[in-house]
Each structure stands twice: as C-alpha cells, then as structure tokens.
Amino acid sequence: MDDDHRAGTGNWSAFARNMNDVHTAAEDWKRAVAGIEKPWLCWNINDEWCAFQQKIILSVGWTPVIGWDPSCNPGKRTVFNKSVEIDFNKSFSFDSLWPHFPLEFAFLWTKKLAFWHADLLLRINKLRKLVELFESIEDGDMAAVESKGGLRNILSFRTHRYWELLGCTTQKASKHQFDTGCGWWRHFYLHPNTPIEERHTRAKYYYDSGVGIMYWKRRYKKNIYSIKEKWASEGHCTQINNPHYQSGKNKGEELNVNFSIEKVAERLDLLGFLGP
Fold first, then answer.
1. Cut 0.90: pTM above it
2. Residue 197, domain extent
C-alpha cells in the first residue's frame, strides 16, 4: 500500500501534504454545512446502505453529511433532499479516503459532528438515546465507543483506544486534540503537533486510530462520554460478526456479499426505512 493511499485513510506516517492545503479545503466543507446545526457524517462505500443510513438519521432530526471512498464507490450516489454531500477528496485526489480524514479536522468546518461507520445500523430506540446524548454534549467534550481489546488487553493500557465506530465530537475538543497532537489518525506520535519531549513516549503506544483520543483523555484529563462497545456493535455488519465472511473487491461489495440488508433491517426493527 503506497503512502498516498495510506494518507487518505488517516495515517500520520504517510501524510506529506501541506497543512495549508487542508485549511483551504476545509473552507469548502464549512460552506457546505453552513446553517446545519446537527450534522451526522455518513460514509458512502455502498450506495444502498448509505441511503438506508440517511433515512434513519433524518428520522431523528439530524442532517446526513455524505462523504465517500473512491476505491469503493466512485459512481453515482444517492443523496436525499435534506442531506448534504461533500467531496472531501476534491483537493487531494487520494486513491482511498476514509471518514477519519475529515473527522480529524472537524474543528475547521463544524461546531459539532456526529459520526458512525458505513457498516453500522442501530435500533431506533438506541439511536434516540444517542441523539439525546449528542445534543447535550457541551463544546470541549465528546462521545465515542471505548475499546480495550477484550480481557486479554485490559491491563495493556497503551493499546486502549476510542473507536470511531460511533460518536460525536465538538469544535473545541477537536481543536484541542489537534493542537496537542492527539487526534484520530494512526501513528499519532508522528502528528506534527506532538511535543518533541513526548514523541518517544507516544511511540510506545499502539499504532491504530483512536489511540490518540484515549491518550488525550488521560493526558489532559478531558471528558469523553464512553459508549459501550457491546451495546453499539449489535448492528455492526463486519467480519467480526460473521464467521463465514467472504472477501470482495472492496468493503462496499463485501457488505452485500456477507450481509442481507433486509435481514439486518428485520433483526433491528428497521424494515420501515427500506424501499424508496
């Protein structure tokens, strides 16, 4: 995997672009969401699943903000009238782009941002509880799924992380994370704002996304509302929840190969959101 591909997935070990380019691109993102008080980031890797997510989010009074991964879904995409689509990749042309990219720079373009994985669905009663939490979060705080990697890693604190499976961030929290080099991307010790005196210490932490967010909470005593991983994962359509998982050309194709959207909707009492 080349550096340009890894950079688009959110990886400080591969990102070599000028931060001025990010600030310039974020001005377009900011204009696109102007006037939207409750944006919810939805990532289109499979148009049928993204359309389903949009309907669910719209039903609870939030506005879907649609980005997409060109390696999964470069073609026509469904965007409902009250949703907003943003080409987060316009200024960069990465081969692949993950939601980690705009999430890392949320402070540049929105005051509050909810987010979830492209392969996650939630029961409406759970979603309403989350909406209540997200709407109450004060600027400077955030919410995310806490993951410690199971019992075998419970004492391995350097591997603990907050997972972008589901959550909500705020402008001040995002800004402070960026200023202190503790954001969402992988290899957070290589963040351009990591203090020189902390780089060696941070390099000992697990490389994966969200480890920097956990470090931010512990190092700077910040408030993160923890969402239980087991509670959030019920509708996570991923390899972890399918012992017979089959690989495909890309993650969008794999959703259809391994999961029936109709069956998942039925199991989660979401059938009313299927269809045109």
1. yes
2. 3-273
